[in-house]
Amino acid sequence: xxxxxxxxxxxxxxxxxxxxxxxxxxxxxxxxxxxxxxxxxxxxxxxxxxxxxxxxxxxxxxxxxxxxxxxxxxxxxxxxxxxxxxxxxxxxxxxxxxxxxxxxxxxxxxxxxxxxxxxxxxxxxxxxxxxxxxxxxxxxxxxxxxxxxxxxxxxxxxxxxxxxxxxxxxxxxxxxxxxxxxxxxxxxxxxxxxxxxxxxxxxxxxxxxxxxxxxxxxxxxxxxxxxxxxxxxxxxxxxxxxxxxxxxxxxxxxxxxxxxxxxxxxxxxxxxxxxxxxxxxxxxxxxxxxxxxxxxxxxxxxxxxxxxxxxxxxxxxxxxxxxxxxxxxxxxxxxxxxxxxxxxxxxxxxxxxxxxxxxxxxxxxxxxxxxxxxxxxxxxxxxxxxxxxxxxxxxxxxxxxxxxxxxxxxxxxxxxxxxxxxxxxxxxxxxxxxxxxxxxxxxxxxxxxxxxxxxxxxxxxxxxxxxxxxxxxxxxxxxxxxxxxxxxxxxxxxxxxxxxxxxxxxxxxxxxxxxxxxxxxxxxxxxxxxxxxxxxxxxxxxxxxxxxxxxxxxxxxxxxxxxxxxxxxxxxxxxxxxxxxxxxxxxxxxxxxxxxxxxxxx
Length: 602
Ligand code: ADP
Ligand code: MG
Prior knowledge:
The protein is built from 20 helices and 22 strands. Adenosine-5'-diphosphate (ADP) binds at residues 32, 36-37, 40, 61, 63-66, 74, 79-82, 96-103, 145.
């Protein structure tokens, strides 16, 4: 035995490792295969998914098909009909991974292809398993390609184990579907999951495609942008400010009809809305850049959702001005706010030096996972229920250790009606406490009271359903509808009733009576968007719903309260389970001790 420790990996292992670069999850397979179908000139592409792609992914296209030899060749590493040498990389207008996709996929799954070119009478069927050709035969089949990928990662258990629950993986597939279908409205697509048709998209125009994917409500809420400069063309849509959402607003950039992420250009858009938006909402946009292929570097990282534009700095003000202009024209912006200096045609056609905003450094990260980043980008901020359980138990622990000192004075209060109270800044309530004074945040106190009351009602199913005099209509896009169907039953249990009202539309006909004057539609939409990103929300429907209702019903800071109202609030708070911290872990009250006050006078 030699003592050397270095050895060459068996080819199968090497292939599997290489495959990991291309195939991160089922949605990557969908992306690669659909892009191949698009490259093959298909006008109709049907996608059939089983169990979020774990068991099977099948794509049927009517594109140009493959010859018998090509169908075998296609699976060799670096096999491609699309580039011949490295220069082609810089003018690449096709999709995909330069001859890596099919080779990679066949390394980690069972793949079966049926394909026929128009000019051939017989088609061909090939089967690959662990990079090996296991079957090749002539068959009769329709023109085009029909490819099935089964049991992804069957031979890489570590990777398979790493897959997320089906609803998460399917969401990734829907995201890929959105990205690809938005770029190709001239192609008709269907997406079927576990025999259920999720999308049927006919050949249509861009705006129709947006509405087919995200709901007809966008028809009224998008403003068109179209601007041609010497640097390239920018077209697409941005949303009116009122359509901006806290979460889940569709946001898409495309470069030469390929979905990209571009934080720098995102800044150009969000800056253009400036003061038109509440700080926590984001606008929708669908922006398509068309620039010379050699002006963008798609090689910036392996999965290519981030690209670098050569003229990034110059495109920034053009994009920003175009957005401002369209917002201004739509009367969203008072015209006085509209900065004439950056009217859209100036930057590209004058030699006047421009004020540049420095673009961020783009760095290469080989571990980057575009799918993760995408979902975080869209949904990350403002999650009220993040780490729900830990917040809840933390708050509980704090309460248990500190409740004594915080409430000792009140504990012996028998009669709240004689309590000395004072409101401060229309925001805080001040009252005497044992050895000090106590300051209560009125909003947080009221939020916690409402939360505990509502939760109790919902949990005991004591809610009474209250029919709505004017049923409220909600329109959901496909992803939202998937969530809705999952949580519908539980919502009904606590007092909601819904009626289906045509495609993707529902009417809310009754609500739990604790809803008071809250808009059921807004609440439901907010709730669904929250669920979209966080599975845990679904597990905690009642808590989350109680929190939403509590937030809406809580006494806001800035509300003047009279003494009776203040005492009522304090009395109710004294009966809460958590009196020091809200369910979100925020402090409800503080004590300023006599000592602290005395010290100030030293
Ligand atoms: P790439 O797309 O980068 O060339 P792939 O591994 O994805 O690499 O595909 C290899 C080759 O197989 C393609 O170049 C193309 O010639 C052929 N091919 C793959 N899918 C299809 C399809 N759906 N229709 C026709 N040809 C296809
Ligand atoms: Mg490809």
